[in-house]
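Form P-L/3: holo structure prediction, ligand magnesium ion.
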Amino acid sequence: MHKVAVLGATGSIGGSTLDVIARHPQHFRATVLTAHRQVEALVALCVKHRPELAVIADPALEAELARRLAAAGVHCEVASGHDALTAAVSSELCDTVVAAIVGAAGLESTLAAARTGKRLLLANKESIVMAGSLLLEALAASGGVLIPVDSEHNAIFQCLPGGRPDLGKHGVRRIILTASGGPFRGRGRAELAEITPEQACKHPNWVMGRKISVDSATLMNKGLEVIEAHHLFAAPADVIDVVVHPQSLIHSMVEYVDGSVLAQLGNPDMRTAIAHALAWPERVESGVASLDLASCAPLQFEQPDLVTFRCLALAFQALRAGGDAPAVLNAANEVAVEAFLAGALPFLAIADVVESVLAELPAQAVVDVGTLCERDAMARAAARRVLRNAC
Ligand code: NAD
Ligand code: MG
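OUTPUT (holo model):
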């Protein structure tokens, strides 16, 4: 029986994770559930899943959470704040942590899971983009295991022997990340000037949180995933290719030196990757329908348009610059996406903000989490300055 902490339980990945867990009460139990500010949604999940502990990140809402849980007849422990999140992850309450908080806000708890040697099921790609080397060092020191939940990385994990091998030794020639192309695939810059948050969040194949939906529309999501793949699979930038595959049925591929290309396919439903990661190295049923190849649309592939979707090129640039450039890229992107979602920044200007901040803060070596967080704050401040000057 695995005791699972679901960080970001009220989100899209959190919901899919709890759906899979609920299908296998003999194998998994959701012992810790957390949310940022959604008290009502968290209470509803606690009523259904009966965790031992519920954590609300915003301390101002702890009393309300406790009151509502008591009123609903749920007698679990209640805590609040980011320290409570890291304490929960490090405690005996869980042996498995599903890191599904969105953004840099997930870094501390992801690192805490890695340091305590828990099975770390990583959806929070921003934390590995920011602090890949520190995260991997922490895992190596604790003997913890990381199983990727991001569908592309989960696919690559499944196509590689042993998940994270020495690529050279195993004859890997290329890692091929597939990208859906997002809702604006095929459009040129002129057609994207007036894009609204609602249009950007309407992904053709996946239902996701708003931040990752915007990242998918700009292709920054693929850029973050290139950096994520670099860390997870010790792959240099030159070994990672991106191909647009609008049907999102092939979740990614690995090419070997003999010309073999292994792919992982499935319907676009995150429960497959989540179930794989929860049960690994076993397999459990996920609730996802069988892939019906005879009746699905023909599979298409095309090159990404790096002129229109500059964020992908900027992510490769940050990866090649090394050091903390990916953390700077991520911070600037988070600020820009927030501004876009608030109606305060045009869609195409997201890339402009990221580019300016990368130029203003040249890469520095990653020393420790403290300095990384300082650089994250500097990049956010720089991005806000760019935003103010643009308005
Ligand atoms: P979401 O917006 O639907 O949910 C985010 C969750 O994080 C919520 O439970 C929210 O309460 C919590 N949260 C937000 N800010 C927080 C903060 N400051 N402190 C503590 N908790 C906070 O997002 P999502 O789509 O589920 O994505 C979660 C992560 O998984 C992201 O990093 C995303 O890139 C990654 N991911 C998502 C998908 C997907 O299909 N949704 C696929 C691959 C990877
Ligand atoms: Mg993905």
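COMMENT: The chain has a mean pLDDT of 96.
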